[in-house]
Amino acid sequence: MTAAYEDDLAYIHDVGFGDYARNAAPALLEILRQAGITTGLVVDLGCGSGLWARELVDAGYDVLGIDISTSMIEIARRRVPRGEFKVASLLKAKLPQCAAVTSLGECLNYLFDKNNSIGELSRLFRRVYASLKPGGLFIFDIAEPGRGKGPRQKHLEAADWAVLVEVDEDARARRLTRRITSFRKVGSLFRRNEEVHHLQLYKRSEVAKELCDVGFGVRTVRAYGSQPMIEGCVGFVARKSHQRI
Questions:
Q1: What is the DSSP string of the chain?
Q2: N or C: more exposed end of the chain, with fewer CB within 10 A?
Q3: Residue 115, pLDDT above cutoff 70
């Protein structure tokens, strides 16, 4: 396993990049309700610091959050004491019977678990399908080829943190690399850390095919309500049939 949002970057991501989950939450809750899912367990794969998990708990759902980052899980446990959280690869974690599974923010692309591939995603889809109750939903988004378009270097900062991000996309390998240098204020000084994140990029057509082959009914979305999809990403709402097979 490679480094995955260690203490400083986990803190920065939580305080500086939480708008996506917060803004998407109302529409995601409405998707669940329209599907008749108003209670029950929701499993959040790549749950991060628990921002979406908190929205679920506040709306009356039970939550199991799974993330490979120990630092993210520590924040999530503090934020959502009524939730359950586990440190694990989302590709390998055991999934209990549940009403819905979510994964927000291109989590299924990350190569923190180097085994990630379309074959591994297919196996994950089968495990998700088996864990869902009839009529259950699997809501997630992925990064596609072309995700790296735009400025190659980015800089963001606040009073107590800053990040420098360098982005490279290998079109032939369909792989995105982010080199992240973070600075977090500790006392009167700033502490510097570096992480390199690799993402495997997937075409929506191949992901949709794998979902359909498993048995899901599938539609794609370009936004979660008023929250547009991250540029270069596409969302999926996959539903398990009510009919028992």
A1: ----S-HHHHHHHHHHS-HHHHHHHHHHHHHHHHTT--SSEEEEET-TTSHHHHHHHHTT-EEEEEES-HHHHHHHHHH-TTSEEEES-TTT-----EEEEEE-SSGGGB-SSTT-SHHHHHHHHHHHHHHEEEEEEEEEEEEPTTTT-S-SEEEEEETTEEEEEEEEEETTTTEEEEEEEEEEEETTEEEEEEEEEEEE---HHHHHHHHHHHT-EEEEESEETTEEPPTTEEEEEEE--SS--
A2: C
A3: yes
Q: Place 245 in a pLDDT band, splitting at 50, 70 and 90.
A: very low
CATH numeric code, 153-199: 2.20.25.110
- Domain segments of the chain: what residues? 7-144+202-239, 153-199
The full 3-state SS of 147-164, as one line of letters, equals: CCCCCCEEEEEECCEEEE
Q: List, for residues 116-138, the tens digit of each pLDDT value.
A: 999 999 999 999 999 999 999 99
Domain 7-144+202-239 coded CATH 3.40.50.150? yes
Residue whose entry in the numeric block shows the structure tokens 């370009």: 222
